[in-house]
Amino acid sequence: MALFEDSFVNGWDNWSWATINAGNITPVNSGASSLAVRAGPFTALAFHHAALDISGYKSLTFWVNGGQGGQKLLLRALLSGTIVDPGFTLTLAAADPNNPWTKVTIPLSALGVATKSDLSDIWFQEIAGVDQTASPFYIDDIRLDLAPPPVIVNVGVDGHQMSNEIDARMFGLNVEIWDGAFNTPTTADLLTESANTAMRFGGGSLSDAYHWKTGLAEGSTFLWPTNIDAFANVAMTTRAQVFITANYGSGSPEEAADEVRYTNKTKNYGFKYWEIGNENYGSWEVDNNLRPHDPLTYARRFKEYFKQMKLADHTIKIGAVITVDEDSFPNYTDEVVTNPRTGASHSGWSAVLLAGLKQLGVTPDYVIYHRYEQGPGGENDAFLLNSARTWANDAASIRQLLNDYLGADAKKVEIICTENNSVFSNTGKQTTSLVNGLFMADSIANVMKTEFKGFFWWNLRNGQEFSNNNASSLYGWRKYGDYGIVSSAVPAGPADRYPTFYTYKLLQHYARGGETVVAATSDYNGLGVYAVRDRKARTLNLLLINKHPTAPLNVNIAVSGFKVGTQADVFSYGIPQDNAAQTGIGSADVAQSTATLVGSTFTWNPAPYSATVLRIVQSGREDNVGTD
Length: 628
Known about the structure:
Elements: E1 2-4, E2 13-14, E3 19-24, E4 34-38, E5 44-52, E6 57-65, E7 72-79, E8 82-91, E9 102-107, E10 119-126, E11 137-146, E12 153-165, E13 172-175, H1 185-193, E14 198-201, E15 210-211, E16 216-217, H2 228-238, E17 241-246, H3 253-266, E18 273-276, H4 295-312, E19 317-321, E20 337-338, E21 345-346, H5 349-360, E22 366-374, H6 381-387, H7 391-406, E23 414-423, H8 434-448, E24 454-457, H9 499-506, E25 516-522, E26 527-534, E27 539-546, E28 555-560, E29 564-574, H10 575-583, E30 591-596, E31 601-604, E32 610-618
Parallel strand pairs: 12-28, 13-14, 13-24, 14-17, 17-18, 18-19, 19-22, 22-23, 23-24
Antiparallel strand pairs: 1-11, 2-5, 3-4, 4-11, 5-10, 6-9, 6-11, 7-8, 7-10, 12-25, 15-16, 20-21, 25-26, 26-27, 27-32, 28-31, 29-30, 29-32
């Protein structure tokens, strides 16, 4: 993982308090520029990143040119902002005119951070107390080196240790009013091919400007191509469960109730799930209220939306927009509520909203949560592939919020994630890469282990962007970004289906609702491992995600609590399929095969950057192999 190569990359930022020239053009070890550092007493060249799991890395490597030499540096690492002592001391020699650059490799153990999960900073700090601003030194090509994977990765699966049943709403896609290719046989075929089970329509920021009757956005004369009936045609054809986002920002309870009445009474579409607005805590949303983005205003209006929409159809479920904690988006400091459990005061969106709903005597049927892992320009493949493990924390935090502010009524409220992707705006090449496909699978598999009842990826189609982060430090051959899992091509060829489409399709062989999550563990963070039991098919389904970019893994899998049969269906997607989409040589589709197993302990060798589903047939049911 590069920290600097011609610029700060992979989500690493310049937090230096020494004088830094990040565009120095001479001397340079490689590429176009290096870092020129002019260090005053005790100042530092400092790299910062959101807390990063580095358990898969072994060392820090960089190239240094000491200039006139004599600088005494202390290399220090910080974990979640806390300095780790003692650090590593380095004295720079004057540059050799014939060989001015020296390669330095420092084991992470020497910095005290080997195998840690929360590296946040790396400092190159001047410690002699000498003003070196007139004598710069130069650093280039700074990176964290991957550690080789273990010789054997041990996986344990306990078929008796079961938790929650998987909801069919866990496999959802956002579909949009701007998608001119939506109401076509191609879309229906793609949704059927991927075994999609749920769709959210009208989501995103445009939902707070869009008026469903006219097909126009607030203040616009442009007619958006996909209206509610065009959406319904595909939704009914594919038998998807439906979530509709009502216009809160420029709409009204009457407008939303009319939409419910039209879809469910006039047209008999039977759309069950409705949410009031989209990310209404954010300044980026249209909000025509006197106090825009105000949680208390939202609570009061939510009550009226809830009342009128339920009068239109009492069977529907209505959701409210929340955040993950009680302190984010404190948009109005004159609104302060007290947490009944802790006694602490909070002004964040969720705290004020939930306290307001409780006081108003209205309880949402579900709450809506959105999560994006990174900011634009800060994309990092390793960070992304390790980020999904925190979904359990989000579920626990949201449940605690509901319990604290809604009391006994909280148990009636479901938690749904209606948007997730890798970056929150300005898509770059990572969104259309194999890495994002693996992240999608990892994210969904982790969400299944929590009490979230639904999950929607953002989105089916969005549009290609060519001018954002397409850095060479990110994996992938497509030089553009796209939130969609497919392009707008009709019909869609292999390369028009992005890796996110193929991993989404792959997951239908793992779960699509009704299965039960069982315990699965790995002793190597570079391998994601998940398991479910399908009692109807009498199979144990394993999902293995190899997050290492170059190394296959030697995995020893021990299964207990399930009678392992002799055969398994195997479904996989990875580098060969992604390359085939680029070259047109070979198949870009999910690979399928069968495997013979001997006993309840067996080995498997997942390829680098791959997702594999092993659907293991219960002993005595081998006739299931090869059927879905």
